[in-house]
Amino acid sequence: MRTSYFRKGISALLAVMIVAVALFAPLGLGVAGSGTQASKIADKYTAYADEYMWLSVRSTGGLTTMQSSTKEIVLSVTNTRDGNFTFDEAVLEFEDKAGITYKGGVSAETNFKSSGDSVEVRFEITTSRFCETGMKDFRLVLKNDGETVYTSRYFALSITENVVPGDEEEHGGVYINTVDVFHAIYPESGLVTGSGNTVSFQVFNGSSTALRSAKIELTLPSGIAIDNGSPERYLGNISSGDTATATFNIVVEEGVADKNHVIGVKVTGLDSKKEEVAFDKNFYVPVDGDGVIEEDGPDSVHTPILMVSNYNYGGGSVLAGSAFPLEISFLNTSKVNLYNIKVVVDGNGVFVPVNSSNAFYIEQVGAGETSTHTLTLSASGDAKQDALPISVSMSYENKNGETFSADDTISIPVVQELRLFIDNIVPPYEAYVGMETSASVDFYNMGKNTISNLRVTAEGNFDVFQSNSKYFGNMQSGAKDDYRFTMIPREVGPVSGVVIFTYEDMAGVQHSEQVDFSFEAIEMPVFEDPWADMEPEPVKEAIPWGLIIGIVVFVALVIGAIVTRKILKKKKEKALELEDALFEIDEKDDEGEKESK
Known about the structure:
The strands form nine sheets. Strands 2, 5, 9, 10 and 11 form a five-stranded mixed β-sheet that branches. This protein has a five-stranded mixed β-sheet with strand order 13-20-19-15-17, with no helix packed on it. A five-stranded mixed β-sheet has the order 22-29-28-24-26, with no helix packed on it. The protein starts with a helix and ends with a helix. The longest helix has 52 residues, at 545-596. The chain has helices at 2-24, 34-44, 545-596; strands at residues 55-59, 64-66, 70-79, 85-87, 89-94, 100-105, 110-112, 118-127, 134-144, 147-151, 155-160, 179-186, 191-192, 194-205, 211-219, 224-226, 232-238, 243-252, 259-270, 276-288, 306-312, 318-319, 323-332, 338-346, 351-353, 359-365, 370-379, 386-397, 403-415, 420-422, 437-445, 451-460, 462-463, 470-475, 480-489, 493-504, 510-521. The chain is mainly beta and 597 residues long.
């Protein structure tokens, strides 16, 4: 019984202590371990710092390439502080290097001794045929004696699909795919019996991609052969817009008919999928032979032929909405003179003549001779970007007044002008040294074509927390967007730099525009404390919570002991009273028994 009461007293005491701790713990006593959690969060956001920070790395060219191609990337490294810096190795680190190889870097030790010292680091990037398209992030790492001494911010290499001739329908008809062959002979009046003749062919690649491992092969008529050689020539790789030339020495055997003979030309090559691309064309070549003209047979020419032998429009393409000179050469492939030649040039509603008619007159073209005429045309501003045809119709007479006609077609690549309008840069409201601020600029696609792979970045004499480069992708005609960039001024004075826009047209040709800016940075102002002169209020002494808690616990113990003692005393007194009562009863019973006896 006594033990039960004692346990109840101890339980009450413990309850009082628990309540006291719960009430007073939040008032000032920290919890162990909270500092460790804060340390973990700080570690997570701690920025990486290079051993030497005062370098500026920027790309001096477009960071765009295609599948199955090679691209040179040039990075300019500049020292922005007066201080020595040395490196002897430069490498690129790609986050995803699948399908990408590179070579280059630096070949000797480079030393920077003062601000403004710079060097260009060149790399040759090669992409595989099936390299994944899109943006590939990479950064420049500089090393010295095998140890990393600098790591740049990330750049992005844009890899696009390598479109080959024949894919124009799949890709919306926006790619220019033209392959053509032109020829020249010597003697110009016609090949002669024996050796000393030459035939030259120019292969023009007007497609949007390279023609690889190109080869030209001739098919010659009977009696005409290659002089001690092969009818094939390897032309190598012909880049987009380039021309390759092959010249053949020709022997004309005795007895070959005096007429125009047909020489067949076949051009073959490989596209980016390593599939064969072939192009065929026939040429009528006059031969001053010592044989008789055959009346029958596939090589006989009974009708005098006037044909377009060459044309030139002043470059690789024509800008929509602009005028250009079109020079056309006409070759009389027959053995007779041709007279009263009328030529009509039909631009099919896309090309129209400027200040002249679309028809002109040539009085005479001698046998085997060429006549050249130039007219000015204008390409429609609404013309789609493609290789667009022009029809050339010719009517003429021989010396007997007999009339003949011939038709030919030429094609001219038309490109639409890209019009990326860049608005004025909106400066920051205030720019303080050491504090992050921002600026913005609006831009618009005011052209008729989509701008592809648009990327914008800002560079200058300022620091940043993260890269200012932003990829916008494709921008449709008439679209508007904005670019915001951040900066941390390094020192008081002008904060200058450049916002660079890089993008591609529909043919994959890269363009770049940039806008300069300059802002003034000032020191962070120091604000005076209006309460600095006032006397500080007396500091209230801190409440000694530890002492109070100790007193409360002591008092609780004392009270518990007193209560327990009183309970035990009362129990003892009641037990004695009960014993006395029982004793008296026993005495009375004994007395009654005695009296009854």
